[in-house]
């Protein structure tokens, strides 16, 4: 592998040793098929190379002996020789692949954090919004891609005019309208995409983002369209109060089990742009890529406070089904907060275990104090993002004023970002048999979070 560091003499001696190994294999496997003359030629050529190595002959003499041996092998080696470097490389990569698959299956598994349910301990996809004139050029985009896994999304205005945002109404709640379709990440891996369509001067301007980015898209809307309002949510609510005045059309809603035609209300944002100017420009920064250690939980019970990776295929709950009603079968990462027999209660912003403030991880205390970026624990979602994207809602297993006791052979898992986490409060307990392992090391992106997982 590191032969490029060797001197010319060392390379030739290594080459000679390799040819002697091939000669030995040919002699052992084919000597009964060769004539006496061929066997003598082979042994003689191999002996000559050994002598040149023993006497430490110069490179030219050793090369001549090796070439003679190679000629003999080419003539009499059969299927054992010649073996091209291509074949050797294929064998190397096959062995490497087998080793990697074995490591992945039993020891270490790569994992990507898709959402921000564990933020700020682990980051899912996040957004960085650029103001007009701040959009990154090609060189900066490449640098950000290599170091942060950032992908740029810049939507240009197709005409002069005010930017209009489409909104679906669901009873009392509203959501920015989108269409959903299947696509491929990096051109290979199946994924779900969401396409948002804005109107500028009567012309459509579209942007397509990963479906897992739905919660963070609120930040993009905020920084792009809120203007002087506290948030885009307020812009949306103020506009919907004047619903009869808004323009309407229909759009195929593909977010449910069956596509349906819905009325779209076009909300004016107050932002005016000229043709060719950015309607919005933002980067999606990749979620943390980390290695998951799969060994220890086969022998030791997971500890409260540990990062906790598990499979979702056996968690039976309506909240663990996709829009078509199919069981979600993925790997999730949360923080373990309850083991069999534990009783849990949330007295916002703190989490209690068996009647006492929970211990075992720094995130517990930081959430209880709402320290730094930690938002504190909640019994359910009260975030305006739930109204904007419709992601959180429904019945909770840990309601305000209530408690829950973890049954045998089960665990209870919560996200560190409680207001934006779908976790055991929504879909219940994690079966013991589906525990995979614990986060070990964040290997990308190259930020201050790089290193051992918390």
Describe the protein's topology.
Layout: H1 8-30, H2 36-54, H3 59-76, H4 85-106, E1 108-112, E2 126-129, H5 138-148, E3 150-156, E4 161-170, E5 173-176, E6 179-185, E7 189-200, E8 203-210, H6 217-225, H7 232-240, E9 247-253, E10 260-273, E11 278-285, E12 289-293, E13 307-311, E14 331-338, E15 343-347, E16 350-353, E17 356-357, H8 362-368, H9 384-389, E18 403-405, E19 410-414, H10 424-427, E20 430-431, E21 435-444, E22 451-452
Antiparallel strand pairs: 1-12, 2-11, 3-11, 4-5, 4-7, 4-10, 6-7, 7-8, 9-10, 12-21, 13-14, 13-21, 14-19, 15-16, 15-18, 16-17, 19-20, 21-22
Helix pairs in contact: 1-2, 1-3, 2-3
What does this protein structure show overall?
The structure is a single chain. This protein is of the alpha+beta class. The chain has three domains: 3-83; 126-285, no CATH class; 288-452, Umud Fragment, subunit A. It has helices at residues 8-30, 36-54, 59-76, 85-106, 138-148, 217-225, 232-240, 362-368, 384-389, 424-427, and strands spanning 108-112, 126-129, 150-156, 161-170, 173-176, 179-185, 189-200, 203-210, 247-253, 260-273, 278-285, 289-293, 307-311, 331-338, 343-347, 350-353, 356-357, 403-405, 410-414, 430-431, 435-444, 451-452. The strands form four sheets. Strands 1, 12, 13, 14, 19, 20, 21 and 22 form an eight-stranded antiparallel β-sheet that branches. Strands 4, 5, 6, 7, 8, 9 and 10 form a seven-stranded antiparallel β-sheet that branches. A four-stranded antiparallel β-sheet has the order 17-16-15-18, with helices on one face. Strand 15 and strand 16 form a beta hairpin. Helix 1 packs antiparallel against helix 2 (36-54), helix 1 runs parallel beside helix 3 (59-76) and helix 2 packs antiparallel against helix 3.
């Amino acid at each position: 592998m590191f032969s490029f560091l060797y001197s010319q003499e060392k390379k030739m001696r290594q080459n000679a040793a390799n040819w002697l190994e091939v000669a030995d294999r040919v002699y052992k496997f084919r000597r009964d098929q060769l004539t006496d003359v061929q066997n003598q030629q082979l042994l003689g050529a191999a002996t000559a190379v050994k002598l040149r190595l023993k006497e430490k002959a110069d490179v030219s003499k050793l090369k001549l002996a090796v070439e003679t041996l190679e000629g003999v092998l080419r003539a009499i080696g059969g299927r054992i020789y010649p073996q091209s470097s291509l074949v050797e490389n294929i064998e190397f990569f096959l062995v490497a692949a087998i080793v990697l698959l074995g490591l992945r299956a039993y020891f270490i598994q790569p994992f990507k954090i898709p959402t921000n349910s564990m933020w700020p301990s682990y980051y899912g996809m996040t957004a960085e919004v650029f103001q007009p004139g701040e959009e990154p050029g090609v060189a900066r985009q490449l640098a950000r891609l290599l170091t942060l896994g950032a992908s740029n999304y810049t939507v240009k205005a197709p005409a002069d005019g005010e930017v209009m945002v489409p909104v679906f109404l669901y009873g009392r709640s509203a959501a920015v309208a989108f269409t959903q379709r299947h696509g491929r990440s990096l051109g290979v891996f199946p994924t779900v995409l969401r396409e948002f369509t804005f109107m500028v001067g009567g012309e459509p301007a579209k942007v397509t983002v990963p479906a897992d980015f739905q919660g963070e898209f609120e930040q993009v809307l905020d920084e792009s369209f809120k203007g002087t309002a506290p948030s885009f949510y307020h812009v949306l609510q103020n506009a919907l109060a004047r619903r009869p005045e808004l323009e309407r059309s229909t759009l195929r809603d593909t977010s449910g089990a069956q596509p349906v035609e819905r009325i779209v209300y076009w909300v004016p944002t107050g932002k005016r742009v000229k043709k060719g100017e950015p309607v919005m420009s933002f980067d999606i920064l990749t979620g943390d890529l980390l290695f998951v250690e799969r060994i220890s939980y086969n022998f030791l019970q997971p500890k409260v406070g540990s990062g906790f990776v598990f499979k979702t295929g056996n968690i039976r709950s309506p909240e663990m089904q996709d829009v078509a009603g199919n069981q979600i079968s993925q790997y999730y990462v949360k923080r373990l907060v309850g083991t069999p027999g534990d009783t849990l209660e949330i007295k916002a912003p703190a989490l209690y275990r068996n009647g006492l403030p929970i211990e075992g991880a720094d995130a517990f205390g930081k959430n209880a104090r709402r320290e730094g970026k930690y938002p504190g624990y909640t019994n359910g979602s009260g975030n305006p993002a739930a109204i904007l994207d419709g992601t959180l809602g429904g019945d909770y297993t840990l309601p305000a004023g209530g408690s829950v006791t973890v049954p045998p052979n089960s665990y209870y898992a919560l996200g560190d970002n409680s207001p934006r986490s779908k976790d055991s409060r929504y879909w219940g307990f994690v079966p013991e048999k589906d525990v995979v392992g614990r986060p070990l090391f964040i290997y990308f992106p190259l930020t201050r979070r790089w290193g051992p997982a918390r």
